[in-house]
Amino acid sequence: MAENVTTYSFKLNTGASIPALGLGTWQSRPNEVRTAVKVALQKGYRHIDTALAYGNEKEVGEGIKDSGVPRKEIFLVTKLDNTWHHRVTDGIDSSLKSLGTDYVDLYLMHWPSSTDPKDTKKHLPDWDFIKTWQEMQKLPETGKVKAIGVSNFGIKNLEILLNDPSCKTVPAVNQIELHPNCPSPKLVEYCAKKGIHCTGYSCLGSTDSPLAKDKTLAGIAEKKGKTTAQVLLKWGVQKGWSVIPKSVTPSRIESNFELDGWTLDSEEVKQLDSLPDRFKVCGDAWLPVKVFFKDDE
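User: That's the sequence. What structure does it adopt?
Assistant: Structure tokens below.
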């Protein structure tokens, strides 16, 4: 498995398969995403991640068309924005129109926050993520989405969701921040027990994270003759989750794909598991409700 990451996929609780390696598009600037998606697909990526909140779904759709890769060969993920929680049908319809496709393979609730569109500092008084999930559960039978899932859900909110009587569908995926400075072992284990696959975003940390200067990581990369990004991606897949590194630089998109024919040994995985620094690229201070409760490790 871990030797051939570019063709490996994880089985979801729906029976579908999600490619282990995808292209993330968060914080990608306008006019760069279209080319990035085209380059990635032509290189061999078959998993593309976007979101209504990113404002780039139209470009993602254009990049898919430019690539020449048939839509049915691509695992396409998008997300319901916080201010659209009470308008799930409108949300998916907006995304499909922008993407220029009839369906997405996975539709995620981006955050467990039903934010008031009239005042994003406030939570809707008469709505919550339970009601959002009730509406999302209706989508697969419409053919507009193949699977539904969540993002940025910790154990506390997953417990609330899964224990609610209205929850008939266990999320196929929980997309969360995952890297050696934010490894979330308890959350990953909890999801595995519930049959929820994890996808790791910000899987390379960020330019200002401790990972950028970590000597252990650099040492492993040097020993392997690989980039630190390649080592981090391989670590994630060997730990059992899919990874969606973001890049708009063609050379990096191609380099991040060079993950076949080598593995990290158990000692190297353990070294990365043991990095002491803790750093979160994406917090919850901007939301009207708290969603992270330090229950992930």
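The chain has a mean pLDDT of 96.
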